Amino acid sequence: MELVALHSKSLTRSWYSTKIYRPDGSTVSVKEELTPLAKHIRDTILATGPISVAKYMQTALTSPVGGYYTRGQVFGRSGDFVTSPEISQMFGEIMAVWYVLHWEMLGRPSKTAFVELGPGRGTLMADMLRASKRFPDFAKSIQGVHFIERSPELRKMQHSKLGCLEESTKYVQDKNDKGTPTCAVAADGKDIHWYDLLEEVSIEPDCVPLVMAHEFFDALPVYKFEKGLGDQWSEILVDVAESNAAATEASSNAGTAANKLAETQELHFKYVRSRSVTANAALILREPKFSSMFDKGDHVEVSPESAHIMSQLAHWISTNRGMGLIIDYGQDWTQGDTFRGIKSHKFANPLSSPGSMDLTADVDFSYLR
Predict the structure, then answer these.
(1) Distances (CA, A) of 276 to 220, 287, 337
(2) How far apart are the C-alpha atoms of 121 and 368, rounded to whole Å?
(3) CA distance 240 to 243
(4) CA-based max dimension of the chain
(5) What is the pLDDT of residues 74-97, one digit of tens each?
(6) Which residue in 217, 207, 180 sits closest to 115, CA to CA?
(7) How far apart are CA 367 and CA 54, in angstroms?
(8) pLDDT in tens, 279-313
(9) pLDDT band at 263 (very low <50, low <70, confident <90, very high)
């Protein structure tokens, strides 16, 4: 739908479209709303030059200026997507049985602790804890729950979902971050702890970690690259739409069909291709497979942060004789153009209105190993 303006010198609108018609029949191209987060990203690019897709993705999801996960209400039918635990409690119950089985295989250790990365609203953990009560010895071994969660709003939801007692709750000591829990006691007496990073987690040396990462790795930042002549890789970057910087050129196939919506929308950002090898490309694409397995024009997405976290998990689990379960969507090989936005249960252009949608990319399980 397009809005007709009555006066050419006072073009006003209550929603955003690609064109506004003047009374004389001429049109004015209109960009989508420049939100505070979009302005922040735009100012960063204008000051430092085009940024990596990874930096754009991380900023759009987690920035305190208006990152997507700071909103909290993003799950369920009224949100943008629904995850397995939100569909049926059976998912969490099955996961609990998996942990019980492997707890038995480990010799029934007397002390365990759940550690969940990206716990969403806390639904999965609540279902697993409830199902664990059907196995009294296993339930007795659980000393507590440790959440890796940066979002203040999601922490509050998890606090409520697990029935944490208000009188037992400690909060972040920051006048600008009131009401964000750091630890509490749940209704069943178990200790609940929250952390920003995995390396902050502290459990007793004789406590076996039970790690869960459900749809966590798909939201970690990815870098995008395109192979040129020989073994030279260009990096796909994010630039302001008006830029004609000499150091970059437009990339005609830098994304999926959803990304190509930029061709018909007036967005503030666009993809560009670096003219030379960037530091990211030189550092991240050192593995021999990137020289031998790909042809000119191929795209790849790589998430070094995912590999780093997986390495930490593997070492931690091995050292503490624990177990881990990683559940996500992806493939067992490196992929090219899966970076996308999800809004109102539909795919969307990830460069549109940063902070208004979930951003995700398929997981490369071969890279995690």
Answers:
(1) 26, 19, 21
(2) 26
(3) 6
(4) 81
(5) 666 666 567 788 889 999 999 999
(6) 207
(7) 16
(8) 999 999 988 888 888 889 999 999 999 999 999 99
(9) very low
Instruction: Give me the amino acid identity at 292.
Output: S
Cα 181 versus chain centre, distance: 21
Q: Which amino acid is at 105?
A: M
Q: What ranges make up the beta strands (E) of 118-243?
A: 142-148, 170-171, 181-185, 191-195, 208-214, 223-227, 233-240
* Amino acid making up residue 42: R
Cβ neighbors of 345 (< 8 A, separation 6 or more) are: 80, 81, 82
Yes or no: say if 221 and 238 are a contact pair by the CB < 8 Å rule.
Answer: no
Alpha carbons 98 and 104: distance in angstroms, whole number: 10
245 Cβ neighbours under 8 A, 6+ residues apart: 49, 50, 239, 272
Is the pTM here over 0.70, yes or no? yes
* Amino acid, single-letter form, for residue 200: E
Burial (Cβ within 10 Å: 0-12, 13-18, ≥19) of residue 210:
buried
The amino acid that residue 25 corresponds to is G
C-alpha pair distances (Å), 132 with each of 129, 136, 190: 5, 7, 13
If you count them, how many residues does the chain have?
Answer: 369
